[in-house]
């Protein structure tokens, strides 16, 4: 007799926790590839899970404990058995709802865009009062990060129902509900925000949380004068509050000289004493950076050494050392500072006492590994400029990982060339070029190494063979990760006032580049994107659209136009529209699930999203190559016309 999946799951799950009591005959519940041992899990209980993995490798599993407006990620240890993965989650008493994430490579299992998000219940089987509202906040703030797609009106409805069912929670969630409404219904949002402003203003006395909510509501109404008056009042009434601390930060930012910045810090410490808070670390970083500009290294160290958060301190040391290394001056000082950044990260790795709440342990470990790699790269550059070639090579070898980009790999080969280690330089250059982790300079270094080694083949023939191998690998990698998702239609105006509708471009490959004038990586990628536009200018089957987003203000269109003109870019720019006046959420960006820019969405001729590329690697050659391959793949996949 064949066992049912639920029965088999329960047998294996119980074996993982022999102390689990059989209190009920609850058969659990299934959500996509996930099975939970309880249909109504409660805080304080253990929850057993089974996950049917669809990939060749076990995914990274994380549970997000949702508490009010925050979530706290924790790693899930999974055991492989009977063609599935099993684990146990202990639910803290304070949690209102939960979200599980399963990530393979760069992709999340989104459960058909619904996510693995569920409520918690009390001992009577009743859903916890804050569960729905908490889930609503999670969907609104984090859905895009985990490839979840929930319509704006659905999120607003979740929060509205939660507040209607339990009006006592409204003060805790009214600002979040206002944001949800702004994305769904401008008129209703305006009415609700004003209603809540009137509510707080009618109270006989306001506590800090009331003032905080009122400040945010005025901010949503774009009433800066009212918001400033609340900040002034709260700073006086609650001098140690978060609003007051933010005001101190503004003062440090605005202070011009190092002495003025130090004076703000001293005044801040009169209120807070030696207490460690995030804002103090930021102040110390700003002050130390100012002293670094003035090359006052004694004062720099005095303030930098007081920063309590290890990553914040190490980041400051590294950025300071990198600038000195780039400029090629004060290299001894740069070496000391750089070495200190590495030592800080090394000491903090594996110590989770300073881990931010928004990281799980594994996520924190990865962040620390990445930092160590970047900071070692800085130190290797300093060693190289000091003439310590062997030290630079050794340090760069430690810095390199499979995630290292073209700049780091190219520096490594450069150090090998300078040390006359031509055989190793050729070997590594071949490896990096074939793996698409090389820039134009790498080719020059390879040519030098090739000419010094015993090679009989013509260099150009040899290089062409290498590049063909790299192209084949890049093409295979892209094809393996090709998407086929419905593209949300849009109708946006360009800088000349013409209307562009995505569905009118059906039959073409459309490259949507989402950007903003304040976005450094966006602007760094634009010289390469200009080359791409020029390369395909005569191809009637390819269309580039540069969607400006996440920018507000009366001068937005003028600023964007001037930026494009000043840089002589021949971009067809579209202006994304905020979901509501003054909103920080924009319609098209939201519809495509974008949570960081630059992001490139490649829509194939059949109107499907085929690729989504987030960020900029700093390598224009690689970007151009990827765009060309993605265009080629989208047009290959087009169904034959009837």
E-strand count: 18
Question: How much helix is in the residues?
Answer: 40-55%
Largest sheet: 8 strands, mixed
Beta content comes to 5-15%
Distance linking N and C termini: 50 Å
What spatial order of strands do you see in the largest sheet?
A: 11-18-17-14-15-16-12-13
Structural class: alpha+beta
Kindly provide the radius of gyration, computed on alpha-carbon positions and rounded to a whole number of angstroms.
Answer: 28 Å
The unreliable regions are 1-21
Mean pLDDT score = 90
Our count of helices gives 23
The geometry reads as: globular
Please, could you describe this protein's structure?
The protein is an alpha+beta fold. It is built from 23 helices and 18 strands. The strands form three sheets. Strands 11-18-17-14-15-16-12-13 form an eight-stranded mixed β-sheet. It has a five-stranded antiparallel β-sheet with strand order 1-2-3-7-6, with helices on one face. Strands 4, 5, 8, 9 and 10 form a five-stranded antiparallel β-sheet that branches. Helix 21 (556-566) links the parallel strand 15 and strand 16 (573-575). Mean pLDDT is 90; it is low at 1-21.
């Amino acid at each position: 007799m064949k066992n049912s999946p639920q029965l088999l799951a329960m047998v294996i799950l119980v074996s993982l926790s022999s102390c689990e009591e059989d209190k009920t005959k609850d058969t659990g519940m299934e959500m996509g590839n996930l099975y939970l041992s309880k249909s109504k899990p409660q805080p304080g209980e253990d929850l057993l899970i089974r996950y049917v993995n669809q990939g060749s490798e076990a995914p990274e599993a994380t549970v997000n404990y949702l508490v009010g407006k925050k979530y706290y990620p924790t790693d899930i240890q999974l055991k492989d058995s009977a063609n599935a993965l099993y684990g146990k989650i202990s639910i803290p008493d304070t949690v209102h709802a939960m979200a599980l994430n399963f990530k393979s490579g760069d992709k999340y299992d989104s459960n058909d865009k619904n996510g693995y998000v569920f409520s918690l219940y009390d001992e009577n089987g009743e859903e916890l009062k804050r569960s729905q509202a908490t889930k609503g906040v999670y969907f609104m703030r984090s859905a895009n990060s985990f490839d979840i797609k929930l319509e704006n009106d659905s999120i607003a409805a979740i929060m509205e129902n939660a507040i209607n069912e339990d009006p006592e929670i409204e003060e805790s969630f009214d600002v979040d509900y206002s944001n949800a409404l702004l994305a769904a219904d401008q008129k209703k949002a305006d009415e609700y925000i004003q209603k809540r402003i009137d509510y707080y203003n009618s109270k006989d006395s306001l506590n800090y949380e009331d003032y905080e909510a009122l400040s945010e509501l005025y901010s949503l109404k774009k009433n800066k004068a009212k918001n400033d008056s609340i900040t002034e009042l709260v700073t006086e009434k609650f001098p140690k509050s978060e609003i007051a601390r933010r005001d101190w930060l503004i003062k440090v930012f605005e202070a011009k000289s190092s002495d003025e910045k130090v004076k703000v810090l001293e005044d801040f410490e009169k209120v807070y004493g030696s207490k460690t808070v995030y804002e103090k670390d930021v102040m110390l970083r700003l002050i130390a950076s100012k002293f670094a500009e003035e090359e006052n290294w004694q004062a720099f160290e005095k303030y930098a050494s007081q920063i309590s958060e290890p990553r914040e301190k190490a980041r400051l040391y590294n950025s300071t050392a990198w600038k000195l290394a780039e400029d090629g001056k004060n290299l001894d000082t740069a070496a000391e500072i750089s070495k200190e950044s590495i030592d800080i990260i090394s000491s903090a790795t594996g110590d989770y006492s300073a881990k931010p709440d928004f990281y799980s342990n594994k996520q924190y470990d990865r962040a620390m590994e990445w930092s160590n790699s970047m900071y070692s790269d800085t130190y290797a550059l300093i060693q190289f400029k000091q003439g310590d070639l062997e030290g630079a090579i050794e340090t760069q070898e430690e810095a390199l990982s499979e995630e290292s980009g073209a700049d780091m790999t190219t520096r490594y080969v450069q150090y090998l060339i300078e040390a006359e280690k031509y055989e190793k330089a050729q070997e590594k250059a071949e490896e990096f070029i074939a793996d698409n982790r090389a820039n134009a300079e790498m080719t020059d270094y390879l040519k030098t190494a090739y000419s010094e080694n015993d090679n009989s083949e013509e260099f150009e023939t040899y290089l062409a063979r290498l590049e063909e191998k790299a192209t084949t690998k890049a093409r295979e990698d892209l094809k393996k990760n090709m998407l086929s998702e419905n593209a949300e239609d849009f109708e946006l105006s360009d800088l000349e006032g013409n209307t562009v509708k995505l569905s009118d471009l059906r039959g073409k490959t459309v490259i949507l580049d989402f950007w903003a004038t304040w976005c450094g990586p966006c602007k760094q990628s634009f010289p390469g994107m200009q080359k791409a536009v020029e390369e395909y200018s005569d191809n009637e089957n390819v269309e580039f659209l540069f969607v400006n987003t996440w920018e507000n203000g009366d001068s937005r269109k003028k600023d964007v136009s001037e930026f494009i003109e000043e840089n002589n870019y021949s971009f067809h720019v579209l202006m994304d529209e905020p979901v509501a006046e003054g909103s920080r959420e924009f319609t098209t960006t939201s519809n495509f699930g974008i949570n960081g820019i630059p992001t490139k969405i490649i829509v194939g001729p059949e109107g499907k999203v085929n690729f989504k590329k987030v960020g900029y690697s700093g390598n224009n050659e690689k970007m151009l190559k990827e765009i060309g391959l993605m265009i080629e793949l989208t047009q290959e996949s087009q169904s034959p016309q009837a």
